[in-house]
Amino acid sequence: MRRLLWLTAAAFLAAGCSQGPGREVAADVQPDPRPLDGALHFTAAEAAELHRSEEQEIRQCMNRRGFDYRVGPVGDVEGQAAGSPYGLLTQRRASADGYGLTARRLRTPPADPNTQQVSSLTVRERQAWEEALKGSPDGPREEIVLQDGPTLSVATDSCVSVGRRALYGASWERDHYTVQHLRNAIVKDTLGHRLVKAAERKWAACMRDEGFRYEHREDPLKALKKRLDAAGSDAAALRATGRDELKTAVRDAVCQAEAGLAGEISRAQKQVEKALPPARTSRLEEFRAARDSALRRAGEPA
To answer: Do 266 and 33 contact (CB within 8 A), yes or no?
Structure first.
């Protein structure tokens, strides 16, 4: 499908998107900063194993309650694993997938194997199935208060929660949401750091030299998303947007490398994390232990 949507990177570059005079090719060997030493990052293989193990636990829970449940598909673990929390690009990834926007728009989501059998249930049976899976409105809940953030309410009697506890341990929901919230705060503070802002100004100047008048790194993504929305299902418009996405993303990757963006983000992130009070990272070790235990459990033979 992707081959039909846009030219290959080699043909695309030969058709007028080669490097301008004096431009160096962006190196793929560069820092890949991830908050908290990548505590929330999983490889594609790890994510797939954890998904399958969690789905098996959910299936067993549903079966114990008298409901049929079929294990859901893994999804795009490759794309999730490759994605940077800071929007960093390598030229290899940019020339193959751009930002991934057009590919995601055209990709058909994996079918839920439960859809057909659930749709055949009566209204009452369907409600009972959904409540067994996701929890009932009147069922027990855990309130998770995030520092400087919202309070989350998690159904503890749902088979989704039961499955996660079986795989990750009793405190997983609280630990995961707490560490995720901390990760998001680190990303925000890092992107606002003076080192990163200075590198982004260099990036913007580089992009202008190449004919792209963007001030902020999210600007090309916003413009491409707007074009994709306008294209709808028009195949020609989607192909054109895909080609322009590749062109823009390749230039973006080159300019990120020239501006030293990944290195500056890495340095800024270290400073942001060093300033964190111990109370903010109090659940980190417990989270890592639960993560490692779940990975070992998921890797064990069935």
So the answer is: yes
- Tens digit of each residue's pLDDT (9 = 90 or more) over 22-74: 444 444 568 899 999 999 999 999 999 999 999 999 999 999 999 999 999 99
Considering only the C-alpha atoms of the chain, give the largest distance between any 2 of them, rounded to a whole number of Å: 68
71 near 55, Cβ under 8 Å?
Answer: yes
Predicted structure pTM score? 0.86
Distance CA 42, CA 133 (A): 25
Tokens of 6: 């846009």
Q: How many CA atoms lie within 13 A of 94 on its CB side?
A: 26
Instruction: Yes or no: say if 261 and 229 are a contact pair by the CB < 8 Å rule.
Output: no
- Evaluated on CA atoms 125, 129, 134, 137, the torsion sign reads positive
93-123 tens-digit pLDDT: 999 999 999 999 988 888 899 999 999 999 9
Say how far apart CA 251 and CA 245 lie, in whole Å: 10
Burial code (b: 16+ CB inside 10 Å, e: under 16) for 222-253 equals ebbeebbeebeeeeeebbebbbbbbbbbbbbb
Is 172 in a helix, a strand, or coil? Answer: helix
3-state secondary structure of 142: strand
Residue 210 exposed, middle or buried by CB count within 10 Å (0-12, 13-18, 19+) = middle
